[in-house]
Design brief:
alpha+beta; two-stranded antiparallel ribbon; three-stranded antiparallel beta sheet; TolA/TonB C-terminal domain; single chain; flat
Length: about 240
């Protein structure tokens, strides 16, 4: 026996119609809820402002202090005229003339001693000095040639006298750099030696070698001897 469905019992045949009706109803209710407004029915009595009333300002009464007038000035003292009898003799002071005549002898004036003028110790950098200090053996050539000769002579002197084995004895290795600064004074002597190195032993060795530099001809600026500072880097490599 076959079962047959009743077409009236099919609940899904009008589902799209029901969905459209429900959607429209929900949109209507949502719109109504959003646009729904309420108003307060109670009113507040704020009163009536009367502009006819004048504002009365109370002005405080102050007592004005009356200052007494200043006292009158004291009366002027009467002038007293003292009469002096003309009996005292007045001695006149005679001013003698300081001009000399031919009869007077002129006393010899001692020579005025002038304190010796102290010359300032002017320092001129090695790069801009007019006449550089002259190292022995660098007398020929112009100023630039003397500069180059002096630098080369000092470098050769330091390379010959410096004890490079000292670094290995001090436990140092690799590349070592010593910065030395000294001055060549007005007499050509080396002064003011300062050294900076990784080890105090290297600093003492650099100062010892620079002290051995020979005396030079001093540098000149505008024809006058001046002090010239000089900077010398000493670089060497310790062989391991």
């Amino acid at each position: 026996m076959e079962l047959k469905k009743n077409p009236k019992a099919n609940v899904g045949r009008n589902s799209s119609l029901y969905f459209a009706i429900g959607l429209a109803l929900m949109l209507f209710l949502t719109n109504f809820a959003i646009n729904y407004k309420t108003y307060d029915k109670s009113t507040t009595d704020i009163g009536v402002v009367s502009m006819d009333q004048e504002l009365e300002e109370e002005i405080p009464i102050t007592n004005q202090l009356q200052t007494p007038p200043p006292p009158p000035p004291p009366p002027a003292a009467p002038e007293v005229i003292e009469i002096v009898k003309d009996e005292v003799e007045v001695v006149e002071t005679v001013i003698q003339s300081t001009e000399s005549n031919q009869e007077q002898k002129i006393v010899k004036v001692e020579a005025v001693k002038v304190a010796p003028q102290v010359e300032e110790d002017v320092e001129v950098p090695f790069a801009v000095i007019e006449n550089v200090p002259v190292f022995p053996g660098c007398e020929s050539g112009n100023n630039d040639a003397k500069k180059a000769c002096m630098s080369q002579k000092i470098q050769d002197f330091v390379n010959k006298k410096f004890n490079t084995e000292l670094a290995s004895e001090l436990g140092l290795s690799g590349r070592q750099r010593i910065n030395v600064i000294f001055k060549i004074d007005k007499t050509g002597a080396v002064t003011g030696i300062r050294a900076r190195a990784p080890h105090p032993g290297l600093e003492k060795e650099a100062e010892r070698v620079i002290n051995m530099l020979p005396k030079m001809q001093p540098g000149k600026q505008r024809g006058k001897p001046v002090t010239v500072p000089y900077s010398l880097p000493i670089v060497f490599v310790v062989q391991e």
